[in-house]
Design goal:
- The chain is an alpha/beta fold.
- It has helices spanning about 1-10, 15-40, 50-55, 90-100, 110-150, 170-185, 185-190, 210-220, 230-235, 240-255, 265-270, 280-295, 335-345, 360-365, 370-385, 395-405, 415-435, 470-490, 500-515, 550-575, 575-590, 595-600, 615-625, and strands at about 45, 65, 70-75, 80-85, 105, 150-155, 200-205, 225-230, 260-265, 305-310, 325-330, 445, 455-460, 535, 540, 590-595.
- It has 23 helices and 16 strands.
- The strands form 4 sheets. It has a 6-stranded mixed sheet with strand order 6-8-9-10-7-11.
- β3 (about 70-75) and β4 (about 80-85) form a beta hairpin.
- α6 runs parallel beside α8.
- It is elongated.
- The relative contact order is 0.06.
- The chain binds ligand NHX and zinc ion (ZN).
- Ligand NHX binds next to α17, β13 and α19.
Length: about 625
């Protein structure tokens, strides 16, 4: 509260500007007045006819000064006068001569007027320019003012986020306990002289709850939470980011014990001096300032800096040195148990029917992050609401899951029967091969309803979370990826567009097999992969550390893997063309087939309902296929 008031009181940058403008206007006025009074102010003004009379009567005492249309002089009684004369009155000088009056002609205009006329346009141009430039800067300046003070989230009792709101992330929570204890009782730690981390770096893929964890730490410790995104620091004007960093830390010290949270640290924390042709000056300054600030404060001050990133590889090593972010916590994608917990948290205050089995959902959502799962439950609730249901049912969750995993259904697209048949054969090709090769993920669902970007999707879900895979798995996966186009070739003897994503994924896998995992016979167990990246402009450019020849060999090896896989797929499809036809036919009729329906069409033994028996079923399937080992 106290802080908000301070924000408002602080004058914006445009105030001194207004001040200067005022001064300039005042100066102009003063000059005008001076000009006015210097000449005519102390003189009596006289009618032209009255002047002529005075001249004729010989009342002029001194030399008359004629300056353009202005005539001035002194009368015998001492009064000074000035008057205007009509320009066309050529008689005037004759009258002066006739009456023996001394006169003097001066150049028409006042020197003051001359100066003013000469300088005003230039001054105006400068003023305008200056005005625009400063206005732009001050509007930036205002933004600086608005953002610099990141609004602290104060520890209020009601909507505090605690560890109960964070499902999964068990290890991370345990590691963060220490930080919480410190924030709660900084004195106790100081007395014992324990070394408290200054900075905690949370690393993990997007949507895994890094921000939530940081907030929960603040909530658990009942400490204020100051958060800012790394990209907020990086601004157009050099020095702005650095000053924001300073302000953030200043504010934190006032609120301590508290937490500073910097999201997307990689936006500021990218490696310095790594750029070709100079780095980003502003970003470097900001990063330097951050490092300086982190070095500057003592842990006793009760401020703990937390930061999150999903690109730890690009961070400047200086950030993770001791005294800065000296604690690193990895936040991973949730495993099956964590997914169950996360789903449980999100359905906590939603009406859910008894049919909903969170365990099944958790199994079928491998690879989804916490944010994805939240999205999924939300989507399910919306679907149920749209159908006018009282409770969310399992089918809503199923639909929501397909939506999250495969993209939004786009039934509105009208596809001709001819094209539908092509799509059906493409997907049937994927499905048939995926179904019959060992070690690959089971087919969960296949559909020719357009979803997201795709006209058709063959959806595969891993049986369980896996962390390592074999070369067989990858070879077979590539084979299944290329089976879509193989089917097109077999049926139509043509290849259609649309397979770019299949090719891209397959090629990427093949390249990694050769370059990273040493899975190619011809190139052997050599790593052709480089982690040291070089920045060229904005993009990462991989530096090649092998010969031109090797590079060519890699390319041909990648191609060999892909070609072998494709011909294998083509053979498999050719040998079972009737099954391919059956699948495509069923797809055209029913649009979507789930795994049981696929098994039925292929004449495979339906998979056991028991989740943990799934493996046996697939093995049996393999034995029944001609490709089985
Ligand atoms: C188009 N879309 O772009 C149309 C609308 C070959 C039967 N003219 O391989 O739908 O052709 O197995 C991620 C996922 C582009 C990114 C899918 C980028 C699809 C999908 C193009 C089926 N299923 N291709 C497939 C497909 C297309 C595309 C993607 C993506 C088709 C194929 C899209
Ligand atoms: Zn495909």
């Amino acid at each position: 509260m106290d802080d908000k008031k301070k924000n408002k009181k602080k004058p914006g940058r445009d105030n001194p500007l207004k001040f200067l403008l005022l001064w300039i206007i005042a100066g102009f006025l003063l000059i005008m007045i001076a000009v006015h009074f210097s000449e005519d102010g102390k003189r009596k003004s006289l009618n032209y006819s009255a002047l002529l009379t005075e001249i004729k009567e010989g009342n002029i005492s001194d030399t008359v000064v004629v300056k353009g249309p202005v005539i001035s002089g002194t009368l015998k009684d001492g009064t000074r006068f000035s008057t205007y004369r009509p320009e066309e009155d050529t008689e005037f000088f004759n009258i002066l001569r006739e009456n023996d009056v001394d006169y003097k002609v001066e150049s028409g205009t006042n020197i003051w007027v001359n100066i003013l006329v000469g300088t005003i346009p230039i001054l105006l141009i400068f003023l305008l320019l200056w005005f625009f430039i400063t206005r732009q800067m001050s509007s930036e300046g205002n933004k600086v003012m608005a953002f610099t003070k990141s609004r602290p989230i104060m520890p209020d009792q009601k909507n505090r986020i605690t560890f109960d709101d964070v499902a999964g992330c068990k290890e991370a929570k345990e590691e963060l306990q220490e930080v919480i204890q410190f924030l709660k009782e900084p004195k106790r730690f100081q007395k014992l002289g324990g070394k408290i981390p200054k900075g905690v770096l949370l690393i993990g893929p997007p949507g895994t709850g890094k921000t939530l964890l940081a907030k929960a730490v603040a909530g658990e410790a009942k400490a204020p939470f100051l958060s800012m995104s790394g990209s907020d620091f990086v601004e157009m004007f050099v020095g702005v980011g650095a000053s924001r960093v300073r302000d953030l830390f200043r504010q934190a010290l006032r609120l301590s014990p508290c937490i500073i949270f910097i999201d997307e640290l990689d936006a500021v924390g990218r490696q310095r001096f790594a750029g070709l042709g100079g780095g980003h000056d502003e970003r470097e300054q900001t990063l330097n300032q951050l490092l300086v600030q982190m070095d500057g404060f003592q842990t006793e001050s009760g401020v703990i800096v937390m930061a999150a990133t999903n690109r730890p590889d690009v961070l400047d090593p200086a950030l993770t040195r001791s005294g800065r972010f000296d604690r690193t916590i990895v936040v991973t994608l949730p495993d099956i148990k964590a997914r169950e917990e996360i789903l449980a948290v999100h359905v906590r205050n939603k009406p859910v029917a008894d049919s909903v089995d969170i365990k099944v959902l958790a199994r079928a959502t491998a690879g989804l992050s916490g944010a994805n799962l939240e999205n999924l439950t939300n989507e399910a609730a919306l679907l149920a609401a749209r159908k006018g249901k009282e409770k969310i049912e399992m089918e809503d969750f199923e639909e929501a899951k397909d939506k999250v995993l495969m993209g939004v259904e786009r039934r509105s697209i009208v596809i001709s029967e001819k094209e539908k048949r092509i799509i059906a054969y493409h997907e049937a090709g994927h499905t048939l091969v995926q179904k019959q090769l060992p070690e690959v993920y089971p087919v969960h669902k296949v559909t020719i309803i357009p979803r997201g970007q795709a006209l058709g999707v063959t959806h595969i879900i891993p049986e369980e979370d896996s962390f390592i895979e074999s070369d067989v798995y990858y070879k077979n996966s590539i084979c299944a990826l290329l089976a879509g186009r193989s089917a097109e070739k077999l049926i139509y003897d043509k290849i259609f567009t649309g397979g770019e994503n299949d090719l891209k994924v397959a090629t990427e896998i093949a390249r990694r097999m050769v370059c990273e995992w040493g899975m190619s016979k011809n190139l052997g167990p050599v790593s052709y992969h480089h982690n040291e990246n070089v920045f060229l402009g904005r993009d990462l450019v991989r530096q090649r550390e092998y010969s031109e020849e090797t590079s060519r060999e890699i390319d041909s090896e990648v191609r060999r893997i892909l070609e072998e896989a494709e011909s294998r797929a083509a053979e498999m499809l050719k040998a079972q063309k009737n099954k391919l036809d059956d699948l495509a036919c069923a797809l055209l009729q029913r649009e979507t087939l789930n795994s049981e329906e696929i098994d039925e069409i292929l004449g495979l033994k339906p998979k056991s309902i028991n989740l943990f028996d799934g493996k046996d079923a697939t093995e049996e399937n393999q034995n029944s296929s001609p490709e089985g080992k």
